[in-house]
Specification:
single chain, mainly alpha, Farnesyl Diphosphate Synthase
């Protein structure tokens, strides 16, 4: 088996190539919109969601090309969400992945449309009749991604986040927000990979629990990094949550307890995979990567 670093690099390259092929060329009209879409989706990010999708699919011997399609579908949703989150009407940020945000590099209207187009492209690629899975699994995947992206998932979490500005949330309220805002798409990434391999309902239930704990771990680490890291390291504006008076795990628990919570969530993530044995080694490694990340 290829070592973890080599596997990560391979999946990142596969994802980049698949995105490059799926995104419209900058030479096709409307050229500026397509340029903005490619700017937002290519050449940045660690591709955590595609990595999770592939790692889960590997558990069930899923077809690599099918996993590529599912991976870029969820990554296109993620890219669109970042473009919209950075807009002045949302988080109003100027830096993303170490470069100017989409609305700064282009303009607000183009960024808005680029986000819209990235979102619809996700469902276009996931609904293609060339996908090498049973139609019922394909429909389930479309439903899963739509639910994770909408008002009961990521978009709903962002709405809760905006409404909570300048308010002190309880720990339970904060967890609910991030289960939607961050966790829904991470869970979708894992379960999309499971569907590509036609996992059983018992397997998907265990993986859902794993992904839920992992999604919260991702957010706790994000809050810690927002406190401890600098803008150059993060590739986005550090300390933004504090400046906007938003509740975070660090603001509610303190830095030491937030780190303890992250440790507990990592342990729970590993425990959720126990029944899969060594077959889930990539998921274990990804959980460790998320816990130790500095991006």
């Amino acid at each position: 088996m290829i070592n973890f670093a080599g596997w990560v690099s391979d999946i990142q390259q596969r994802t980049e190539q698949a995105l490059m092929s799926a995104l419209p060329s900058e030479q096709i009209v409307p050229t500026r919109l397509h340029e903005a879409m490619r700017y937002a989706a290519l050449g940045g990010g660690k591709r955590i969601r595609p990595l999770l999708c592939h790692a889960t699919g590997d558990l069930f011997h899923a077809n690599l090309n099918t996993l590529d399609t599912a991976s870029i579908a969820v990554e296109l949703i993620h890219a669109y969400s970042l473009v919209h989150d950075d807009l002045p009407c949302m988080d109003d940020d100027v830096l993303r992945r170490g470069k100017p945000t989409c609305h700064v590099a282009f303009d607000e209207a183009t960024a808005l449309l680029a986000g819209d187009a990235l979102q619809t492209l996700a469902f276009q690629v996931l609904s293609a009749d060339s996908l090498d899975i049973l139609p019922r699994h394909q429909v389930a995947m479309l439903n899963l991604l739509a639910t994770a992206s909408g008002s009961r998932g990521m978009a709903g979490g962002q709405a809760i986040d905006l409404a909570a500005t300048n308010q002190q949330l309880t720990l339970a309220e904060l967890e609910l927000m991030h289960i939607h805002k961050t966790g829904a798409l991470i869970r979708a990434s894992v379960l999309l990979g499971a569907h590509c391999g036609q996992a059983s309902s018992a397997d998907t239930e265990k993986l859902s629990h794993f992904a839920t704990r992992l999604g919260l771990l991702f957010q706790v680490i994000d809050d810690i990094l927002d406190t401890e890291s600098d803008t150059a390291t993060l590739g986005k504006t550090a300390g933004k949550d504090a400046m906007q008076h938003k509740s975070t795990y660090v603001s509610l628990l303190g830095l030491s307890q937030a780190k303890a919570l992250a440790h507990n969530l990592l342990t729970e993530s590993h425990q959720a995979l126990t029944s899969f044995g060594n077959r889930a080694s990539r998921l274990h490694e990804l959980a460790d990567l998320i816990a130790k990340r500095n991006f």
